[in-house]
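ugh ok so i messed up the first submission bc i forgot one of the chains. this is the corrected input, ALL of the components this time, i swear. 1142 residues overall. if the numbers dont match what u have on ur side tell me asap before i send this to the collaborators (the ones from the other lab, u know who)
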Amino acid sequence: MTGITRRLFNTALGSAVAVGGLSTGFSAGILGSWTTPAQAQGAASVVTVATIGEPPTLDPVGTTSDLVSIITQHMFETLFTFDGDWKLAPLVASALPQVSADGKTYTIPLRSGVTFHDGSTVTADDVVASLDHWTKASPRGKTVAPLVESIAAKGADAVVIALKEPFAPLISLLAMNNGAAAIVPKSVIDGPGALKSLVGTGPYKLLEHKPDQYIRLVRHDGYVSPAGTPSGYAGSRKANIGEVRFVPVPNAATRVSGVLAGQYQFADSLPAETLPRIKGAAGVKPVIVKPFGFPLMIMNTKTGVMANQKLRQAVLAALEPNDMLLAGLGDPEFVQAEGSIYAQGTPFYDETSAKPYSDHAAGKAADLLKAAGYKGEPIRIMTSVQYEFLYKMSMVAQAQLEIAGFKVDLQVLDWATLLQRRGDDKGWDAFFTYHTFVPEPSLITVLNPSYPGWWDSPAKREALAAFNREMDPAARKAKWVTLQTLFYSEVPSVKVGEFYNLAASSDKLTGYTPTPWPFFWNTDLKG
Amino acid sequence: MLVYVVRRFAGMMIVMLLVAMVVFLIARVVPGDPAAVMLGSAATPEDIAALRGRLGLDEPLLTQFLLYLGQIVRFDLGESIFLNRPVSQALAERSELTALLTMMSVGIAMLIGVPIGILSAAKRGGLIDQTSVGLAMLAASVPSFWIGLTLIKYLAVDHAWFPVAGYGPPDADLMERMRHLVLPAIALGIPNSALILRFTRTSMLDVMSHDYVRTARAKGLPPLVVVLKHALRNAMIPILTVIGLTTAVMIAGAIVTETVFGLPGVGNLIVSAVLRRDYPVIQGALLVVSAIYVLINLTVDLLYAVVDPRVRY
Amino acid sequence: MASVPAGHGTVPLPSSAGPQRSRSPLALLMRQLFRRRLVVLSFLIMLAILAVALLAPWITPFNPTKMDILGRLKPPTAAHWFGTDEYGRDVLSRVMLGARLSLLVGLLVVVVATVLGTLLGLAAGYVRPLDGVLMRLTDALMAFPDILLAIAFMAALGPSLYNVVLALGIVYTPRVARVVRAACLVVREMPYIEAATALGASTPRIVFLHILPNLISPILVQATFIFAYAILTEAALSFLGVGVPPTTPTWGNMIAGAQQYFQQADWLILFPGCAIVLTVLSLQVVGDGLRDALDPRLQKAK
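and heres the new structure output, hopefully the right one now
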């Protein structure tokens, strides 16, 4: 055992020296290249961002974790992206694709001269390989894979995707920054596994990653920006800040006090209760992100008591969303009791089909319970304290369901265990999670029949297929309303409402655009 | 003596083998699936199953254990599932912080414990003695995370005298890093100073009841000289012993303290590994920390045997 | 990890409890114990906390689980002496309920560790062939720092109140086993044990009727300290999120849950924290008093 210990200490000593040496070398190099344009910035051209934790990976393709996308979107780019109104816009592509009349063939033109972090130029071959990798490695890409006939290069600066049947959400899927169709060099792709090295085309590249300590991204000097006025994620991108440093800070109170103390220039996901403190503090301003997301109580439509549709309707009638939202987020400014899956002001908003959301007539839940033939079977609800607001909502839900006559077995698990258990349809009846705002409805996880909850009734299957086939925006809206009507009659999940995200940024950080996934190109530090 | 050392060493090896077994078993029956965590919330069961297969989590338990023992013998602690690096490297990266934190806490615990312990023994039964014994007991009753939270609130948030959390930017020098560790070291040091205080006091009292101290007193030497020159020198060995043991205990105490202060040390790694179901890291950290613990205990015992011939071996 | 268990473990404290040589009647013990005013005071505090714990369901000023979303995070007032928490629940009521749960965990850990430890210690101390094996086993368990072993067990068992009891029970068993074994080794050499053996008394009879009663006092002292450490360690485990499920308001959970808010609402951690300190402190004082009262060596010294 002494061997291990000694080795450990030797390694520790060695690596401390090595890392110390490296980082000095790097920072000297960075400073050297920056000092000319912005002498005054000096050490200030580092933006330190406090995130909610350590990302499970920095590979943008294989995971749909929001935390991963926040960081990796600086390093990797997709063919398309979203502008400030959540409309599609080109990114590595030079324009939106040309779609054939039958809706099956997409011709995507590419920008020329885009370079990777390793200095090489993006070719149509790289793009084909990246898209092919995406259909095999990304949870989003895999949903598209069965529909894909072929992906091929067309000349040096275009790519053609041929589908077996029309699939309207394709471009939105290609534009997502998680489970992302990131454009990478063909040489770093290693089967369906993780990328061999983290080389992208983004305005920042990875300098150093020390798990649980920091992720340092530095400006990619050879970056070739798309044209156009910046809007949302679209338009030109400029890396004014020399280094963006992501620091994992799992404790929310620490993120708050750290940003107030000036230790961080930006802190994400803060408790709503801290808004007055952030407002009152000098040098820091609050950032409220809306739309941000919606909490969901997902029910098991496949196995167990919740497979009974009447019982799910009873749950919907018994839950009082206002209380849940307020308990969860703490501040009315951060919540909105909104039943429509898309909130007012977005293209897919529909109020009428979401009526059952606010119908809590006295006795309704009890009648439904009776109709369902409920005999007091305990409802196993899984929740986790890792997401404080979900935990609080589930506490309130438990209280409300018990008042309505349900028997509730609330299981508080850590998030990892919850993720594991929800895969087994025999182990649970409901769980709490939240869904980040997505511009394209078919990206919503609950609609995926293989997503835990397994909502897959014949009516829904048909409605979803019709929605995905439809290319015309107005007709799509009508088909979406059909889906939302089903969502409220079959009740696969309860949408608790809308909630907004609180972040805080230093007054010195300028040019920041609030989005669900904060990004720091086009921002600058003054003073 | 040599026989004793060899015997103790052999005993330690057996203990370590048992430790390895306990460590392995504990980490294997943990519920929760690392593959599901790594793939994020939209992963399908098929994805998860595929990743499990790739990570070798589907091998039979016995095969996994034998594999594990073989690795330990080769000083290989395996590869972290979550961090994409060898466990030994992950531990090494975090050991500087934990080592520094432990040293600073021991320093603080000593600075509080030893002088007050001596004073208390010198004034046995007096007001100072009773107060300090009472305070020691109080210190041993306070949860260190509670001290930590309180320090953060009043010294770092209300008055920005110390950093709130973390270990400073990557290019921070040693002084800056140590500044980040002051509050954590106090939070960890205070509860542990109690043991040192009480132990110093009892050893001093023990020594002071010996004849040569009485003689020195009878000679009319000033009490301070008697205490510091005659008694302390002889009480130092047991005091150093307990400081050694406190060090071992503090490595474990760092688990809570590092979590409170968001410090990326070994303790934090252990807690995160449990939450992330990072089996190899849980195993490796448990094994290394308990090895260090056992080693310090052994060293202390052997030292004791060397300096105090009365210890039977 | 808040403290090193003073007076046991591998530290050879000069004043550690030795085997009791002469049995003193209860009255004498009580007199010895209560000679110090601090001990009396601590004993009374302990009784008071115990009473609150037992009566909590009937005497809390408010329903400790009743939420009042609009009245959340209110500082202490005449109505809510300890303020309200992030759900608008009464903190005083929850601290009182917390006493019940924290003390329950502590007591159950004492029972598990004492029963297991005593059995193991007697086996090791009286049955020679078992001694080596059992002591290696306790060595292995003691090779882990307390909190680390507890975390590892909790990771394996999953968070629940009874798993905390089991984990901490296992963690503290070796301490009892060691003390019992050491005392047993001394007692078994006593002439009256030899006499009993010579008279043909059965092994269980000798162990439980003749040896065990002589070990009661060191076990009692250990039990008091383990009670204190169990409460501290449970709080630490719950604080780290690997202890009792967060829906159960033990003191540790109350502090853990308040982490997000304590910078604005310090009463959320102040009161449960004080409850822990008060309980652990009075237990330690009583434990010390017990040890002094039961240790004949110290009695002579006085």
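quick check: The two ends of chain A are 53 Å apart (CA to CA). that seems consistent at least. The longest strand of chain A covers residues 284-299.
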